[in-house]
Design brief:
The chain is mainly α and 411 residues long. The protein has 21 helices and 3 strands. Among the domains are: 85 residues, Winged helix-like DNA-binding domain superfamily/Winged helix DNA-binding domain (Arc Repressor Mutant, subunit A); 109 residues, no CATH class. Helix content is 71%, strand content 2%. Strands 1-3-2 form a 3-stranded antiparallel β-sheet. α11 runs antiparallel to α12. The chain starts with a helix and ends with a helix. The model has no long low-confidence stretch (mean pLDDT 94).
């Protein structure tokens, strides 16, 4: 029995009552105006007013800016009031997950804009006006961070009903989760997505998830598992004759081999991936530049900083020309490190400039790496840099390491 909630509900107009019931049918404890607009088919302004009315009667409470939460017992209360005329809970969930898929895909495009993002198929396509748009990486990351709990719950719920939607949602979430160093969450989501892809025999999707999931595994130190996933992806890519995906798998295997200090084997895989992405049928300039950047890192690990600096510089220019500012900054940081190790004092300034870019892009992993590079190149008192690095390490799963080990293991 919820007498106080019943009394508040009874005082509401019909539209607010209906929204309260519809939100109660969803499995999310946190809601917002976009979700309200999706389930009521109202415009955003009207949905926001309805939510405000629910909050003013204490049926919902405001949490983070723009979000609302049920009070204790409120969710169960709202669910218990379902009316005959209300849409089925599964239909409402399908609509909201469709909205989350659309938003996550927009974030994916922003963060990995030049990668091959598959066309999405929706069981429910949300209104274009409700789908978030992002002008820069920070906005996309902020949106995913704000909705992280609901997004990950959506993967689980989609897997119970709509395999294809679950697979697409995991694919879309990989870049933002990795940029925020949420690797364990990514691995869990990928394991769910792979079950769904295999259940529906979606070989191309399985291939993509194995490759992106391997990236998360590498970041958590599970190098052998990551390599196994990449090998599986390579086999699938060859089975369906997807040359582009074959390059992705070879690149992933190369990273695993580099992390295991098998530099010659790593270089061979990176060279093969680069050759694939430079052929007309599978042209992928960004991938070719990233493979060259890995070959440059191998040169640096093998004690050839001058050669590595030249290659990193080429990657920086190419990626900047493509508009891939995130990876261009990474190439710039590595070029500065290589030049500094080769005795050029301007290398430190280059790393510092790249660190500023990482802060602007909200790339916490590479902010930590740039601090490590600066520690290596800076003479004198390093206490402030070390303090900053120690603050960054826990955010991205790193610990203090030698420069060589950092370059070898950093995924």
């Amino acid at each position: 029995m919820h007498p106080a909630l019943d009394e508040a509900y009874d005082r509401l107009p019909d539209a607010e009552r209906r929204l309260y019931r519809l939100l109660g049918a969803l499995p999310y404890s946190q809601v917002n105006a976009h979700i309200a607009a999706v389930v009521t088919h109202e415009d955003l302004a009207r949905a926001d007013k309805l939510l405000d009315a629910l909050a003013s009667t204490n049926l919902l409470r405001q949490g983070l800016p723009g979000s609302y939460q049920f009070h204790p017992d409120g969710h169960d209360h709202a669910r218990s009031l379902r009316a005959v005329e209300d849409p089925p809970a599964r239909e409402l969930l399908r609509q909201v997950i469709g909205w989350y898929l659309a938003g996550a895909t927009r974030a994916q495009v922003q963060l990995a804009w030049s990668a091959r993002v598959p066309d999405r198929t929706y069981d429910f396509a949300p209104a274009e006006a409700l789908i978030p748009s992002f002008a820069e990486d920070r906005e996309a990351l902020a949106w995913v961070n704000h909705h992280q709990g609901n997004l990950l719950h959506s993967v689980v719920h989609a897997a119970h009903h709509w395999d294809h939607t679950a697979v697409q949602l995991v694919d879309a979430l990989a870049p933002p989760l990795h940029r925020q160093c949420l690797y364990e969450e990514s691995i869990e989501a990928h394991e769910i997505g792979l079950v769904c892809a295999r259940r529906t025999r979606a070989i191309s999707a399985e291939c993509r998830l194995l490759t992106s999931g391997a990236a998360a595994l590498r970041h958590t130190g599970r190098i052998n598992d990551a390599r196994d996933w990449c090998v599986q992806s390579l086999d699938l890519a060859r089975r369906i004759n997807d040359i582009w995906a074959e390059g992705e798998a070879k690149f992933g295997i190369g990273v695993c081999r580099r992390q295991a200090a098998a530099y010659e084997h790593a270089a061979s895989h990176f060279a093969e991936a680069r050759a694939i992405w430079e052929t007309p049928d599978s042209r992928y300039p960004r991938g070719a530049a990233l493979a060259l950047m890995e070959l440059a890192r191998i040169s640096l690990l093998q004690g050839k900083p001058a050669h590595a600096a030249d290659l990193f510089g080429c990657c920086d220019r190419d990626l900047t020309d493509m508009g891939d500012l995130s990876n261009a900054a990474r190439a710039r940081a590595l070029a500065g490190l290589a030049r500094g190790l080769d005795g050029d004092t301007s290398g430190r300034d280059e790393v510092e400039a790249a660190r500023t870019d990482f802060e602007r892009l909200d790339d916490i992993y590479w902010q930590a790496l740039a601090l490590d590079f600066l520690i290596e190149l800076t003479p004198g008192d390093l206490s402030d840099l070390r303090r900053q690095a120690q603050l960054h390490y826990p955010r991205c799963g790193l610990s203090r390491a030698s420069l060589h080990d950092r370059l070898r293991k950093a995924a």
